[in-house]
């Protein structure tokens, strides 16, 4: 049975996507560890022209609501440099508050990473993930999560070597990656760039484990509602993309 | 073929849910229109003990980015009264900022309602939806959206009668309702109350049209990742619940 | 001797007030206890179309300046739902600060309730009163205080039953109610609704104890200064109104 | 008939007040015009050790809600220098918000001054009153209003000389002054200083016109409720104090 | 050898400066101690028409980062009364944040004063300097520092007399004063007033010790860059001005 | 005549600086243009391990105070990524305000760049410089200014090619660079890294033009005051460093 992209090629629809990619083709993904020197984990993740610096910082101690519980905490913050986008956007620090989109994204990142962990085994340590977008071209939140996992793993490795780190075994239960899928020009596509994202009828972010479990699915109809069949097609593309991302993460972690 | 709840009964598992409800049973839902007198639409929606006041306010004119476009706008704000919950939470107005959860929810409400509308037909009018939780017992965001749709319809009806309202046909494309589903004690259940929500392994909010299209699906693994089968089971329960909600909305709108 | 309203009737001035009320006639007042389920005290108070939800929340412990003093604390917060008014007003949580009017009112509510109490007998407990206006038609601050007293009494009753509550006798020294009076169209009137309030030359809020003591008098000339005689006439009307409110509170508390 | 202070002397109660003042005796009041050089009106007002700098600044134009109405506006802001008090208090500009007390006071000042004016005659000009407390010893709000009136008059005089000022006659309808009264150690006293204010059972601020009309009465029971007789006694003392303040204002304005 | 001002006079350039001052002539400087009564140090400093109230407030204890270190802390806050300037500026407390210029100045004041002290000898005490500009005519930051030093010395003297003050010797290492210099109309001038400051090509603030050491030099080209020769000429003028200021400080401290 | 570093070598003081650099030796400086793709100018500047991304963004129009003046505007914002430093610092956007140090630095950057320009020739365009520190190791503000100048030049070149850009000739009057100098272990040194900066007795930032004019000199005594001789020695080192930086800028601009 031919793939959707093969069928499209048969029909002569070679330019479905602005980038010329196949519907099920990810952008080139690069993961650079130790991009900066101070953080316990520091990863530059690139999904094509989308570039996000993900750092993981370890602090002893936990927020008040966990003190004495023996459990650790993982939280995330997200930001875009003002000119990471085509038009300069206001600096949130200067405006005095984080926008709704920022808040939504950083909550998603933190929640996903915590779902991949056994916080009890982390001991009373806090790991703060910072995802700062240096250059945006669509998919910053999925790139952030994919890079953040690698930074988190590096930080955990630092903690493992620390005899006073109070870890109680490996707190990472699942390897985690994220990718966007959507309905673009009526067709399901994988890993939308900005040109696609801004025109897609449906935009879905999927966060999965290496073993294929769903950690978060967020699918939003921008124009028309989507059907169960479209949902299934998108999940299937996402699963393919996650498989590739997991391999790239693993390769980076073995360097 | 027997339903899941019948199978459970056969197994003698009568007390799966704290409330004694069947897995596919919604709480009692009540929709009271004209709950307050000033707003163009004012709806008290109750999902069991969850009570939300949804108002729709019409203003002539649109935000700057739409001026002159001929298009209208729908936006939403969400709040919880400080003691709508079991333990009093800080008043956001006194703290000086809305929390991340609030921001996330009000963005969801606004986005969903806009997806149900043809904003061009609304003309340069803005409708602001306020969802204020008087009493919380789980599912405040899905109750909010379900009630907000009715308040929105009432406000549109007011605009329709207004000869200067600049409407260009019926801007409502889809009837919309929302419900939560989840995996509780290993079983998919419909319309989680607080006792379930706080212990569910997976929590999913589903927003659908009366004709069965998906407008938003947000499924979060709180503990373990969920499988494709679990996802499908949850979507199936959601579809059943949305069917019931749509009927209750329609009945209320015909009173 | 004939009352002022009788004298007015004799003069054929039947339509002094927009509502058709007599000058010394209160709106219908309703007090509904246990309006919501979580708070120790939860009261819906209605002065005609003005509807305020007053909750009283008990917390162990006191603010820093009272720690170790053995004394308790009572504080209040006030808010209006954005569309409780004829025109939607900004949500204070979204604007990031409470307006001056809000601050002024919540300080008044807290100060009055504290004046009715012996905080030493409360022990080191804090009671937070939340007054949230669901629908506004004038007199929201006086309705708030009148309802808040009942919610406070209910919360104190909960504390009385709590063996660890650290109470040292009944902390309520005075039953308290509040009413507005004013000079409308040149005549003193009791319990102004919005139609009157927005045109009154003088607006006075009076908070009194059941035994007739003054706790707070705030009389503001909106247009022309008022005389000692007008002041006395207003205080006299207020005294009559407080007498009726105290009875309604007592009846509600005995249900 | 002997005065209250004479009666007290007869009883040998010579040291009722910490300052040694008679119950009906004001502190020494000084009004210095042109205290700083930039403002249209600049007045240092001293009630004993309470020292407030009141400036009145004229701006052409009015806030949006008045544009095109032909009417002017008067507004006030109030602040305390951080070490104007015995213990340093936080600088509100550094904390990022004005406290509730500040908001309450500046609303009182602005409201009172507007009640003394015919804003229509002011034309579309805005006068901003700034009352900044250099040294506090009780009664800062009443000193502020008393000084602000003189600064306002000076600013009006500047506008009168301005041919382009758009004034339409004298906008000042009433001369205005303010004084505090209270129940201290069971006795009504005039013009409370900090030593009295911090221990008074009742604290009342009275704002009156030169012709004896009430503009604002705010009487608060700090401990026990007060009676109608006590209220009358306080108003009587206030009336005496206002009479003296009005003379001092007039004398200062004629210098 | 003739001075620069003598040379200018020889050239007939008598009106170089708007004020008629010589290039190396300071404005009249006055220092009034005990200007207000509550603060441990309270100084009104006047550089001509620039008037700043500097208070020094002593608190036991230090900020968290110094607790247990045995070392004290000195910090400063700066503000301008809204109408201290020719045109009224917004009240920072009402705007909800301090402007950039304010932040820059208060950091400079605090940093300079700390550089003059041995904080170890201060013991775990915090001294907060408040510099509030009552009237501005250029040079408010240099007047602030010059006055703040005197207020600081007064506060230290209070601490010296306090047996429980935990001081460990005299914490003041250097007497400190500050003055502005600049290039005005092509000539170096000392102690710029507003008329000069607003037109100067270069503006330099110099903070020196009584013994001639530099604590801070901040020289900014407003128009054209300045040369090493101009820099040296400005520093020379500053040194002369500091010498005079130090004498005025010392005289004030001996009163 | 031997240089200071030669003299030191003669004395056997080979390890004065932690990095092993000579006293007058800069770190390796790299300037990478077009580091990101969206901004009109985008420069990564590296002073050793200090890495700052400087972007220049062009907007048509100017702030309100310049509208209609025909003049342009240049402004700057500065930020540090939370983990650009050894210990993670709070994200300013999350805290809700920029810290004092940030405000101080971004004002310095903007002021310096404006001093290098003829804003009249820029026409009514605004250029916003963003300096975001990816990795910090001392000297972030001087690296920022040095890199920002190159980004600014690139943005000006974009404007030059734009026929509608309203430029009136080359607005850049001076090439600008910045470097830090200080007194470390008693010796003047050039271009302090963090290890030196944190222990230096004096820290001076010098901003100069390619032709040797001073644009800004800010010299702060951290411990002991510094002498005129030390000031001169530091300025001499700065002049040498600026000469090198200007060459590196020019080389980068010719690539």
Automatic annotation (TrEMBL), chains A, B, C, D, E, F:
GO terms for molecular function: 3'-5'-RNA exonuclease activity; tRNA binding; tRNA nucleotidyltransferase activity. It catalyses: tRNA(n+1) + phosphate = tRNA(n) + a ribonucleoside 5'-diphosphate. InterPro entries: ExoRNase_PH_dom1, ExoRNase_PH_dom2, ExoRNase_PH_dom2_sf, PNPase/RNase_PH_dom_sf, Ribosomal_Su5_D2-typ_SF, RNase_PH, RNase_PH_bac-type, RNase_PH_CS. It is an enzyme of class 2 (transferase). One of its GO terms (biological process) is tRNA processing. Gene3D superfamilies: GHMP Kinase, N-terminal domain (3.30.230.70). Keywords: Nucleotidyltransferase, RNA-binding, rRNA processing, Transferase, tRNA processing, tRNA-binding. Residues 25-155, 176-241 form the Exoribonuclease phosphorolytic domain. The keyword Oxidoreductase does not apply. Its EC number is 2.7.7.56. Residues 1-10 have a biased composition (Polar residues). SUPFAM superfamilies: Ribonuclease PH domain 2-like, Ribosomal protein S5 domain 2-like. It comes from the Bacteria. Residues 1-24 are annotated as: Disordered. Phosphate binds at residues 101, 139-141. Phosphorolytic 3'-5' exoribonuclease that plays an important role in tRNA 3'-end maturation. Removes nucleotide residues following the 3'-CCA terminus of tRNAs; can also add nucleotides to the ends of RNA molecules by using nucleoside diphosphates as substrates, but this may not be physiologically important. Probably plays a role in initiation of 16S rRNA degradation (leading to ribosome degradation) during starvation. PANTHER family: EXOSOME COMPLEX COMPONENT, EXOSOME COMPLEX COMPONENT RRP41. Homohexameric ring arranged as a trimer of dimers. Belongs to the RNase PH family. HAMAP family: RNase_PH (MF_00564). This is Ribonuclease PH. It comes from Marinobacterium mangrovicola. The gene is rph.
